[in-house]
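Predict structure. Chain length: 451.
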Amino acid sequence: MVTLPDLVAAARREFNAAEAAFQRSQGRLSDLREKFDNGAPVRERDVNEATTARDAAKIARDEAAAKLTNLEAEQAEEERIVRLQNETHPTGATRGGETSTVPIGYATTHTRGGIYNPQAEREGLSFVRDVVNASTRGDVAARDRLARHTQAEFDRLGWSMRDGTTTNYSGLVVPQYLTDLVAPNARAGRPFADNCCTHHPLPPEGLTVNLSRITTGSTATVQAAQLDAVSETDIDDTLLTVNVRTISGAQDVSRQALERGTGVDALIVSDLMAAYHTELDRSILNDDGTLGTHLGVRSVVGLSTVTYTSAGPTAAELYPKLFDALQQTQLASFRGASHIVMHPRRWWWLAAQVGTSQPFLQVAGISTNQGGAVNAPNYQGAAGSLAGIPVILDANIPVTSGAGTNQDTDTAPKSLAVSLVVYGFSAFTAGRVPAANCAIDGTGLVTPTFA
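Prediction complete.
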């Protein structure tokens, strides 16, 4: 049986290996720079490869460090709980001539997941129930568990719990085991947000995020003769302001269901979390930036577009449109496209298309000449590829866009109710290089039919 110390030890070995790989890659880049400084010839290709390797090694090292930090924090919390369990203090009461003692800590040790986890849920310990009991009944034990859980989460995340004590548990963090239940729910989820967007921590304060967007670049020209003036153009940027948006949801649940039911709070919180993530994904794809929404990819001014018009759509007709979209995005950013995002119905329509002798999409492991490949029936990850580009399926892609109506584009205080609320802050922009994103629309993308 793998124990938590085993996991910590393995994570530490993984971090040490990642750190060593990073140092080697850094050394390789330093050697090239030293050669260049000494006048030795250095190929640009070698520098680019060394830089890419260094950046990849840094990401791997940082991920390993975060994993190790989380596991060490979890191990420290479990050790603290065990120490509390073993502590006793005199009550002053006697029984049978002996002074009795009572334990201070939480009565059950859980191998994984801290104070609140599925095992604790089965034993009757509930995060949401503790929140209700601590706030409405003054339950000291519930308040203490919440404070210890919150402090452990803050420590794990590297946050500062400014006012957290056993009587003040503001800033509660929902236990991870509740959010882990999101996947099984029948929600579209956030494939685009998770797979196609660059993630950065949101600043702790402020309702806007400001980015510098270079709109006038430097110039370089051939020097016709020695001592001629060199080309000089002042670089200029435009401030790109991104609004921080709030997405939230609530659910009223009866005190009877919460206190007498088993796992009710976990189901409700997981469903609220699923709704939150789905709405975030839908918004950053489709919304227009008004009424508190994100300015989604499809509404950004300057978005590249391709129109596919056809009364009898076929995969062979759609395929060149993909390359048109790819060349537009590449000319706008001078970078390769990272993903193609499409509605599941469009992907499986492509997979169902058959040419004169073979399917349009190759099934992984079958070597034929096709326009793409189905890797696996995935939804959250890459389902396959088209034109060599990974394909992400996302049901938040609208099916009523364009000129048509069926086109894809790739509280109750008197009723014993408790309101469970999920909310989060987010900022999103596709405006740094708008034309690096391309939408394919048109009558050729009407509701697909399957023979």
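Summary: The first strand starts at residue 88 and ends at 95.
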